[in-house]
Every structure is written in structure tokens, then in C-alpha cells.
């Protein structure tokens, strides 16, 4: 297996002009980000700035509703409201130590953009965030937060004006200023070493979950997380990959249904291809052209997925399923009503899978759901939601 691959997926499919920047990043990651000094500073920021560890909460009323023991990993309680801050702090700190003065990022739901802008403000770095115009409109609050934090928000009006186009624009901007700029990728996607590095910075979720389960004398039977690019999922899966007794489930955006063209269910409906510098599973037509995607979730409407998830899917170590917009909104409302927790629309896809999984299980199982973010940013979308509406 090549170092830059997970099974057959991964690699570095980028213009030659960007190769030296990836080599610089790889060298810095292994020399700087693996050092004791860096780790001490990173862990300090996670603890005293971001607010870790996040609780592993026993959702008693959801447990009663589903007939199984449901535990929620509360990434929604992080500073800035999602798991995205873990990776943003790690990459921004690395950029600072590399001597970079400016960082750039792409964002869909806005949570990674906010997290990157937050880390830039903290560390005194300039920051540009690329965001599709459709996403900027439906996540207007996050757009304002980024500007308040001192970032420039660059709206992209190409294509569907969502995450794919924002990512493409961010890569182009990075190539144009490659010697001076650090590209903070928000998910476990892109050319090597990004998928490995993002997994590393998000692995704190899985490590904490494993420790917290042990402290409660519990053994997880299932761990569920939503998957767009896949950073929150690979973060929580990472600590359990070698324990085959733990079932890992990723939940994709089924949009209006995988039998329609309006979804972002990459592993359910895609096939191997190249996107954004990596070989992975991609939603594409018969000619290999990237297909348009749809989800009520601005954070999940991506036509690719992290290469490690493609490997976990093809090796059958993890199972991936699609949840529709409607199922997601119903789960958001149920969790809010029963637990007083308003999850992000992204996270609500993972919660919605409980409705399908729990009736199939015999005996009482212990199920951990990663609540990757909070739903404050989504209230306008929830208020205006109408079944069957195309949002992106």
C-alpha cells in the first residue's frame, strides 16, 4: 500500500505547480505537527479555548423512545458550535509555525469557515473563506460571523454555487498564491496528506468517546455519524477501526431520495473517480462528469467523499446509508422535543438513521451518535422547510 493511499483510494491528483506545496506540507506535518511542543500547544487550545472534552451524554428519552441505549457525543458544545474547530485549530497552528501569514478555506454550511476564521483571529493570520453563493444565502448568519471575525468571504457564483464550486475556487486561489498561503481543508478530503492530517486532528473525538465509554463501563455496539466529506465520521471512527465488534455507520444525504437525481449519496450511488486532488468514489455521469448534488444540508451536498471512507466502504469495515431531507428534519424535531438539544441538519441525518436501525436490533444495544454540530445556524431552513423542495 502506498503511503498516500487508503487501499486503492487517495493519492495526489493536482497540477505540478502545487506539488512542492504538498511536499512542504507533508514535511511540516511530520516534523512540526508530530512534535511534543506542537501537541502540547494544540491540546491546550482544544481544552482551554475550544472547551474539550465534549460530553458523552446518555439520551434517556431517546433511549426510551427507541428501546436501546442511545449516547450522544456532544461536538455541538465545542466553541463555534461544531467539530470543525478541532481541525481548524490544528491546521492554523501548523500554518503559523510554518511561517505562513494567510490561510484560506472552503465552506458549505459555514461551520468550517467560521472555525477557520476563528483560528485565524486567535493566531493573528489573514483569512479568506470561499463559499458558494447559494450556501452563503442559506447560511447568512455564519457568513456574518466570518466577517465579524475578520475574514473575507469570497462568494462563488459558478455551477450550483455550493460546496463543490467553493472547493474548486479555493484550490485555484491556493495555486495562485502557493508560496505564501496555507490551504485549510475542512474535511478528510483532497490530496495527501490532507485526509491523513484531518483524521489526526479530528481523532480527538474518537479517543474521548472510547475513554468515556470505558469510564461508564460500556461497550459500543454501533457508532453512527453523518458523512459529507467525512471528517466528523472519520474522527469518531478512528479509535474503533481495529475493534471489529463495533459496527461503524456513516449516513449520507439522500436529499429527495436516491432514486431521484436530487441527492448527495456518494457511496450509495457513486463510483471511483477523481475529484479535488484525490481518487475516491464520486457521483458522476457515464462520461465521468461530476453530477450535480442536492441536500437540505449545506454541509453534506458534496459529490465526493474522503478516500478513507471509500476504502472503509469497499472493504466493508463500515456501512453507509442515505437519509432523506424529510427524515432528517423529522429527526431534528424529535431530538429537540425529547432531549432539549437542537442538532445541526448535518448531524440530524445520523440521528435519523436510528429510526431505521433500532427496529432491526435484537436485545438492548448501546449506540453512540456523533452530534457533530448544533442547529442554531439552521433555524431559518427548518422554519421554511417544505417537503420536496430543492435547496441546492
TrEMBL record:
Q: Quote the cellular component terms of the Gene Ontology held in the record.
A: cytoplasm
EC number of this enzyme: 4.2.1.20
Tryptophan synthase beta chain-like PALP domain span: 50-373
Per its UniProt entry, which superkingdom is the organism in?
Bacteria
What catalytic activity is recorded? (1S,2R)-1-C-(indol-3-yl)glycerol 3-phosphate + L-serine = D-glyceraldehyde 3-phosphate + L-tryptophan + H2O
Which Pfam families does the entry mention? PALP
Q: Which molecular function GO terms apply here?
A: tryptophan synthase activity
Q: Which UniProt keywords apply?
A: Amino-acid biosynthesis, Aromatic amino acid biosynthesis, Lyase, Pyridoxal phosphate, Tryptophan biosynthesis
Top-level EC class as recorded in UniProt: lyase
Q: In which pathway does it act?
A: Amino-acid biosynthesis; L-tryptophan biosynthesis; L-tryptophan from chorismate: step 5/5
**Gene3D superfamilies the UniProt entry points to:** 3.40.50.1100
Name the coenzymes or cofactors required: pyridoxal 5'-phosphate
N6-(pyridoxal phosphate)lysine occurs at: 84
* SUPFAM superfamilies for this protein: Tryptophan synthase beta subunit-like PLP-dependent enzymes
Residues in the signal sequence: none
Protein function? The beta subunit is responsible for the synthesis of L-tryptophan from indole and L-serine.
Assembly, per entry: Tetramer of two alpha and two beta chains.
The text of the family note is: Belongs to the TrpB family.
Know the name of this protein?
A: Tryptophan synthase beta chain
Q: Which organism is it from?
A: Campylobacter geochelonis
